[in-house]
Amino acid sequence: MKLIKRMVFDGISPAKTTSSTAALAPFSVLLRFESFLVAALHSVRNFISKPDNHVFISAPPTLSKIDHIPLIKASTPIAEAGNSHFSGQSVLCVGGQILLYPAYRQIIEDAGGQFLSFHGGADMSIIDLHKLLQDTDMIICPIDCIRHEAYFVIKRYCEHFSKPCVMLDRSRITTFYNGIRMLKNFQ
């Protein structure tokens, strides 16, 4: 620590002190840094404002189906989709209460989809989750009952590959049904 202090104070000459700034002498390094920062921000603003310098700025990437992952609640108002069936598409449920999986399966199969699940038990690993993510068409994820690692894998995967995904705030059947209705809107 002493070496760092010595390098900072020896490398930067102290500001001129007068009677009014004598109390601020130890902070002269910060005053010089502030003026440097202001000058740097002005030069960046001037660089951006010139039309010739926009050659290096690329257009933002286009997103295919969704640009964010919505958080669905039981009370979330969701308009009915024009297409009420999944027509054979698979829906992966990651997390949630295993006791509710039969009801989840029934909701998805009633909509014409195929139910896949990942609960993260002792018999399943994150490698299995990666395989399921590649094989599925849509993801639904109750976030109140999920391993942290699985949550972040899903979030990154869906954002990177623009795969339709919804997060549910609770593992309730009504919330799951709202999540399925939202997934139908992404078709």
Mean pLDDT over the full residue set:
75
Which outline best applies?
elongated
- Counted up, domains total 2
**Strands of the largest sheet, in order across it?**
1-5-4-2-3
Look up the CATH topology of the largest domain. Rossmann fold
Give the structural class: alpha/beta
In short:
With 187 residues, this protein is α/β, with parallel strands linked by helices. It has helices spanning 2-11, 28-49, 101-110, 126-135, 148-161, 173-185, and strands at 71-72, 90-94, 114-118, 138-142, 165-168. A 5-stranded parallel sheet has the order 1-5-4-2-3, with helices on both faces.
Description:
With 187 residues, this protein is of the alpha/beta class. It has 2 domains: 2-13 and 23-56, no CATH class; 71-185, AF0625-like (Rossmann fold, 3-Layer(aba) Sandwich), CATH 3.40.50. Helices cover 42% and strands 11% of the residues. Helix 5 (148-161) links the parallel strand 4 and strand 5. Strands 1-5-4-2-3 form a 5-stranded parallel β-sheet, sandwiched between helices. It has 6 helices and 5 strands, in the order H-H-E-E-H-E-H-E-H-E-H. The protein has helices spanning 2-11, 28-49, 101-110, 126-135, 148-161, 173-185, and strands at 71-72, 90-94, 114-118, 138-142, 165-168.
